[in-house]
Amino acid sequence: MKAEIAKRIISEWLEDKIIPPLTRRDVKAIYLEHLSEILAIVGPRRAGKTYFMYQLIGDLLNASTCTREDILFVDFEDFRLIDFSAHDVELLFVAFNQLTGKYPTFIFFDEVQRLPDWSRVLRTLLNQNRYKIIISGSNSELLSREISSELRGRYRDVFMLPFSFSEVLRFKNISYSEKTFYTPARGKLINVFDDYLKEGGFPEVLKKDDTMEKKQLLQSYYRTIFYKDILERHNIKAKYVLEATMIYCLNIYADLFSISAFEKHLKNHDLPGSKRTISNYLRYLEEAFFLILHDKFSFSPRKRVMNPKKVYLLDTGFSFLSTEFSENKGKLLENLVAIELFRRQEEVFYYKGKQECDFIIKRGPKPVSAIQVCWELNQRNQEREFRGLVEGMEALNIEEGVVLTYNDERKTEFKGRTISILPAWKWLLI
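The chain above was modelled as a monomer; its predicted structure follows.
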């Protein structure tokens, strides 16, 4: 019976499977022909990991040297595979060989965590030195640190987040070049940016026309993270404490999270929650790709741990779910910059001395760039924003300082330092 199921699934892939239309993702070129480790596609739920697999498959099929009979694609969420064990995987290869007369060169296993003992299966296949292996999986089961543990370093990963601004423009079929930034056509870019700032980049959310439908979809993602990725995964009993933590983060995003202050907040609402529990919940929320956490800059790891963390939402669309009544565009803009720095996989901190600087970027042993974010610069706030940026630059010996705003662009001098002021939408595209 299982052999027949395997043959049916392989036949459907070879004959009937249609690669759906997709928006190409901004990922460095991957040469699968030279792949020697397992390639793992990791990231939050609903960010487009499966569609990125289709992009890779499409690129292979467009190459003259590769046909569908060189590729095995299996979606382990297929209900017909629910009873498949690790030993049954061999049936898929037998079926493939019967139907094509050979074994595949490329293996794509989608939602591989659904397969029992998946890591041993992958290691066994890799040890045969016959296949190029690409996998993806739900972040509730397949976090980067677990892949590293399970596959013992024999993998490399591709980080897949919701759409970037450039990918949203591509999704909406809006082309641009550097010339566009200086013509009236930039108005179209800014209009898309306005929506992106509020709604985020989850592909299915972008397909919805109605704001309420967008919010309902984001709510479903939120509940899945809450129940599947954290509550069930970590067997958490203090459900109300976890929910209070998530709601609190929704309301204070782009701000400091003091564990001590939040512990008092819980006690004031008659909720239990030790500092250790709160710290664990923050880590779970970060691992489940709901939050981005930044430490205060210090060369001392101990001091980093002792200070409050700055929290950001992984997608600005989650701000729809905040219980705050007023929209804070400055916080949204800062959060969007944090997401982009995370996408670029920069090592990022915040600076706090007499003044504050939103982002300190460290590469290697030293900080190299300072970024301040505000919605607009005016007579009331300009000196404060510049003072925070320049204090961070002077304290950490940083040459490059940038202020990102909604739509201001110029260069200026402050206390002997040159500051570049850029629109955030333009910074996202360069």
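The chain has 16 helices and 14 strands.
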